[in-house]
Design goal:
25% of the residues lie in helices and 37% in strands. The chain is of the alpha+beta class and 329 residues long.
Length: 329
């Protein structure tokens, strides 16, 4: 009964949550980042993964993107998939695929709308929750499986001991909550480990949830759900943009926005702007050439991942079918 009341209370909190997607603009075109999910490659030993960014575009037909990680390394898209074309003044929606190092962290995405000026959007900060004993950091969804009956969702996180006694960490410490506060228990995960005071889990760990209703969406992640020391990380409202200080440094300024010409100097700067655009195009061409080997195979890697997901979906479906048969036997 107590857990049911908690679920109802969480439903009230999560149900009223209004998460605002990240966005940026050059004054004419606006780009909205609705979210990003990671998909593992078919090879278990792969050192790369696919990052899929859900993008909305308003006021322009198209745009190009560059993803910048924490080490200032730039990644170009390997594939665009149009969900809704930008036609007749209506906004467009697309998925932008990047091939990235596994577990990489990012600080911004650079956007250049067609016929517009470049600008940057700060990436999402890593949400965290804590109590006097433990700190939980949430790194996002690393796999999302869907079959005709259910969803399977894998999340990545890391725990740190914030107290004075050892912590025994297992997948069962975590619960996934949907937009109504309905709890889902883990069905797959990592090997349990003991974390000493002042220490963190050896690596980021994965926790998987299957049997998730098709109309549920992941809204919160709980640690020790229902216990007095529970931690709730809101996967919507806690997903906020990195601060400019985190992205550019305490004394730095946004270099992308600084590249825009000052008012009244458009005519004088048109020649230099053209040269800069040509140089930028040349730099992008060099970057594309340097990453051709990886990006040219992205479609094949996505196809392989889709095949792996299809196999996993079939396995989940068969498992559900067997459980249903066993329960009626």
């Amino acid at each position: 009964m107590r857990l049911f009341v908690l679920a109802l209370l969480l439903a009230l909190v999560l149900g009223t949550a209004q998460a605002v997607p990240l966005q940026g603009s050059d004054g004419n075109a606006t780009v909205v980042l609705f979210g990003a999910t990671r998909t593992p490659l078919d090879d278990e030993n792969a050192t790369e993964e696919i990052l899929k960014v859900d993008v909305g575009l308003v006021g322009a037909e198209n745009a190009t993107y560059e993803l910048v990680d924490q080490n200032d390394k730039t990644y170009l898209p390997g594939l665009y998939k149009t969900l809704q074309p930008a036609l007749s003044g209506l906004p467009g929606r697309q998925l932008v695929y990047f091939l990235i190092p596994k577990d990489d962290l990012f600080k911004l995405i650079k956007v250049t709308p067609k016929g517009g000026l470049p600008f940057a959007i700060n990436w999402w900060a890593t949400p965290k929750g804590f109590n006097e004993n433990v700190i939980i950091r949430y790194y996002g969804i690393t796999d999302w499986l869907i079959n005709p009956d259910e969803q399977g969702i894998v999340v990545q996180l890391r725990a740190a001991n914030n107290g004075t006694k050892d912590i025994y960490l297992t997948p069962e410490n975590f619960t996934l909550l949907d937009q109504w506060g309905w709890p889902y228990r883990p069905t797959a995960g990592f090997d349990p480990e003991v974390i000493g005071p002042g220490m963190a889990s050896e690596t980021r760990v994965l926790v998987g949830f299957t049997g998730v209703s098709l109309i549920s969406r992941p809204a919160a992640l709980a640690y020790n759900y229902g216990a007095p020391d529970q931690i709730i990380i809101n996967l919507e409202n806690d997903m906020v943009a990195l601060s400019d200080e985190k992205v550019y440094g305490a004394n730095a300024t946004k270099t992308v926005s600084a590249s825009a010409p000052a008012a009244g100097s458009a005519s004088a700067s048109s020649g230099s702007q053209s040269q800069a655009q040509a140089a930028s195009a040349g730099d992008q061409a060099n970057q594309t050439s340097n990453t051709t080997t990886k990006l040219s195979s992205l479609k094949e890697k996505i196809a392989a991942s889709k095949a792996r997901l299809a196999g996993t979906q079939a396995s989940l479906h068969e498992s559900t079918k067997n459980e249903s048969q066993n329960s009626t036997a």
